[in-house]
Structures are given as C-alpha cells and as structure tokens.
Amino acid sequence: MIDRETLLEVFDIAERRRNERRRFIKMAGTAVAATAGASMLAACGNDDDQYAPPVTPTPTPTSTAGLPAGDVDVLNFALNLEYLEANYYTFAAFGSGINSTVQTGTGTQGTVTGGAKVPFADASVAAYAREIAADENQHVAFLRQQLGSSAVAMPAINIDGGANGAFTAAARAAGVVGATGTFNPYASDENWLLGGMLLSDVGVTAYKGSASLISNKVILDAAAGILAVEAYHSGLLRTLLYRKGLAMPALRTNADLISNARDTVDNGFDDDQGISPTTINGGAASNIVPADSNGIVFGRTAGDVLNVAYLNAGAVSSGGFFPAGVNGNIKTSTAA
C-alpha cells in the first residue's frame, strides 16, 4: 500500500476535483439529479478507499434499480478500462496498484501482473503522473459507487514491462521494438509517456463511442465529465511527446507507430492519429488532438476498444492487457 506521506500528497492533488463534483451536485435541479448527486458525493468523500489501507468501512453500495440495464453494461465496461488505467498510473507514480477494497465485485476478480514506480528524471512529468493517478482512482471509485452491487470486480490485468508483458506485445506489433525486443514503460519518462498515450487515447475514444448508448441523463453528464478528464490526460501526454520529440525524433516516430498499430487491430477507418506535425495554411502545425475535419474526436465501439485492449484484430474474449478477459456483459472484440 502507499505510505502516509504519499497519501497526503494525493489528497491535496484531488481536493479541487472533490470541490468541482460537489458544485455539480448543488447545481442538479431535478429529483433524479439530486439522487445521483448524493451518490457522487459519497464516492468523492471516501478517498481512503482508493489509496489507504481500509481503516474506514467501504461505502454501502447504492442500488442500480433506477438505471437501465444498458447503462449498467456501459458503466461496467468503462469500469474495466478504468481498472487498467488506474493501476498503470498508480504503479508508475507511487509504486503500487489500486487498493484492494476497490477491486471486488461481480465476476472473476483477478490480479495485476507487472507494474513499477517510474524513476522520473523530470519533476514536472512526475507531478503530472501523480495527478493522473489520482484522477483515475477517483474514476474507479465513482463508477463503483454508481453501479453499487452491480459493479464488476477488477479482472486480471497485465501491465508488465518484461518480455511477456502486454506493453512489449504491443510494442512488437507496432514495430517500436524488434520481434525479440522488450518495451518497459516504467524505465523512463519517455517510455511512460508512450505507454500512457497507448492507453489514454483509447480511453477517450471509448467514452466518445459509448456516449450515445447511455440513457440516464445524469449518468451521461457524468460520463461526459470523465471523457473530458481523459481528453485532458491524452492531450497532455501527446503534447509532452510532441515537445520531447523535437529533440528526440525517434520518440515521435514511436508514437506514430503505436497509433498505426491501433488502427490495424481495431478494424477502423484510419481514424487514429500519431503526433507528427502537419501543415495548416502552409505552416507547420502540431497534431495534439486526433480529430476529424470538423474538429471532433472520433469514437470507438466497445468491440473496437477491446480489439486494442486484447491486441487482436479478431473477435476474441481475452488477451493483451486483459489476459482472462473483462468482467460484465460487454466482453468480446470486433471480428476482422
């Protein structure tokens, strides 16, 4: 578990997010919004469940009786992805995964393979990592609070940086390393940024692709808020990669290779974009946002998201970052 000094630091990072969510609750005008807002407050007020040993009781799960079954499925699908991101960023920032009290639920509970604290050379990058870790842990807590007893357990997750790790498999498929090479996202600032880009970009497109499937307006509003946070994370990581890539061209090339590999496995229409500069009105321009001609970020279906997570272009139910698959009703990737 994370030590007490680190806990205090994480809580400081998260304080303004709790205040923002409380403001949302106060602004909710309908009875439905008020009910959901109370759940949000409960989720945000129990940071000990995210980072500390269980010195206080876990919040009593709320009922999902008022949520359509389809919304429950979408939220559980998102929860699987948040388990993955939260563990990656929490290990990188603090050297351990998410707290055991937020891993239980329906389905088969798994363990995390891999994960390590990054020896950050740049203090600002380390600070970004801690903030992102705090956000992702809060996403896990929030989704679990909304789902209550319907929340799925954390599935088996592979975030290892060794020869048998999902990051290495992804890097080999992308051509970032050779057929026998390894990719350790915890080895350096730059490797951590590449690993984060691989996951965060997909998180943005997952929330965008699922938005139209959510019926409850309060949950849709909250999902839009999470999408915005994921987009901030993705934009930050892509910006750092772009800037560092000016002095390290190979870094920018590797980011582009990762983007191309995602497009290969998700059976999409070449929507994914790397970070190499483009030209606008005859002048060089960055490529921070993977948007279409209307300036709108593209979305992935749940099946396409799982193609990337499973590192497989076919219709499968496990692999890659989820070696035993995900929990819930949405679990199969899209057929090639």
Automatic annotation (TrEMBL):
Domain of life: Bacteria
Signal sequence annotation: none
Pfam families: Ferritin_2
Protein's recorded name: Ferritin-like domain-containing protein
Native species: Sphingomonas taxi
Phylogenetic placement of the source organism: Bacteria, Pseudomonadati, Pseudomonadota, Alphaproteobacteria, Sphingomonadales
